Amino acid sequence: MTDAPAIDVRQIHKRYHDGWFARKSFLALRGVDLTVRRGEAFGLLGPNGAGKTTLIKILLGIVRSTGGAAFLLGHPAGSRGARQRVGYLPENLNFPAHHTALQALRFYGRLNSLDEAVIRSRSRDLLDLVGLVGRETELVRKYSKGMRQRLGLAQAMLHEPELLILDEPTDGLDPVGRSEIRRIITRLKNQGKTVFLNSHILQEVELVCDRVAILATGKLRGVGTPSELTTQFHGALSARLCIEVSGAPEVLEQIGPQLDAELQPLPDGRWQLTAHADSQSDVDRTVDRLRSSNLSIHKLERKRPTLEEVFLSAVNTQDDALLPSSEPAHN
Ligand SMILES: Nc1ncnc2c1ncn2[C@@H]1O[C@H](COP(=O)(O)OP(=O)(O)OP(=O)(O)O)[C@@H](O)[C@H]1O
C-alpha cells in the first residue's frame, strides 16, 4: 500500500439523474483514467462544466461514481482509510463568524477527533506555516480573503494528511495573496505532501504544478508536464519566432508572405513579424532572409505556446461527445 499512487482513478464515470422520476440524465464524467504520484503538485484544469468538481467530490467520497474505481493512497475513495489521509480545502470555506483563527482550528480539530493538546501544538506550527502568527486571536470574519484562504489551508493540514486536495485555492485573491498561497503549496510539496489543485488560473498552475491534467466535457484531453502537453498538442500549435524589424515597408510586405509570416505594425514605426520556427535552421533561414533584404532586427524571441494556448487547443480538440459512451453498468 505504501507504493500505491497518491490518486489512482480508473475508468470513472458519473451520470447525474434529474427531473421528474430522475428521467433526465447527464453524463458528467466519461471514463476518466488518472494517476497522481506521491509528492507531486498536480493541477486539474478544465473549462466550466468540465466535471472537475464532480471528480473531486468522487475522490472525497461526497458523490458516488456510477462506474469505475478511485483510490487515494491505496484506499478506496470515500473509505475511512482514505478520509484520514486526505486534507481538503473547499472552494468557499466559511468559518463560524464568532471564531478566532485558534478557535476555528480547535473546532476543525475536534471534528477530526484530535486530542486538545495535539490541536494546540499543531495549530501553532500551522499558523506559522501559513503566516498568521500574531493574528490568531482576531475574529476570522475580520480577516481578508487571502488570510481566510491561508487559515483554510491550515485547517486542511490539521490532521497531518499525506494528500491535499485544494479547490480553487487562489480564487478571488490579489497577486500578493496568490503568491502567498503558492509559497505555502511549495513548502508543503517540499515537506513531501502531494498536492492536487483545481484551478481556473492557468498561470498559477504552471507556476506551482509538476504535472497537469486537462479535462473537458467529462473526458481527459491530456496529462503531463506543461512542456509534455505542449508537445502533445504541437501539431495544432508549434513554436513561434517573434521578431521586431524595421526597414522599407514594401520590402516587408513582400517578405511576409514568402516567410508565411504575420506582420503587425508597432507604434514606433517598427514591425512585429511572427513566423513558425520549429528548429534552429528555421530561425537561421528567417534571419538570413531578413538581413539579406536590408531589414534591421531589433529584437528576436522564440516562443513556445503558453499553457493557456495549449489548454485552448486541448479543449477544442474534436470531441466524440456525440458518439455512444462505453459507460459500464451502474454499480
Ligand atoms: N447534482 C447534479 N445534478 C445534475 N447535474 C449536475 C450535478 N452536479 C453537476 N452537474 C453537471 O455536471 C457537469 C459537470 O459539473 P462540475 O460542477 O463537475 O463541473 P466543473 O468542471 O467543476 O465546473 P466549474 O468550473 O464551473 O465549477 C455540469 O454540466 C453540471 O451542470
TrEMBL record:
InterPro entries for the chain: AAA+_ATPase, ABC_transporter-like_ATP-bd, ABC_transporter-like_CS, P-loop_NTPase
Gene3D superfamilies assigned to the protein according to its UniProt record, in alphabetical order: P-loop containing nucleotide triphosphate hydrolases (3.40.50.300)
Domain of life, per lineage: Bacteria
Top-level enzyme category: hydrolase
GO MF, one annotated term: ATP binding
Span of domain ABC transporter: 7-242
Keyword vocabulary terms for this entry: ATP-binding, Hydrolase, Nucleotide-binding, Transport
EC number: 3.6.3.-
Family the UniProt entry places it in: Belongs to the ABC transporter superfamily.
PANTHER family per record: ABC TRANSPORTER, ATP-BINDING PROTEIN
Protein's name according to its UniProt entry: Putative ABC transporter ATP-binding protein YxlF
Source organism: Aureliella helgolandensis
Gene name for this UniProt entry: yxlF_3
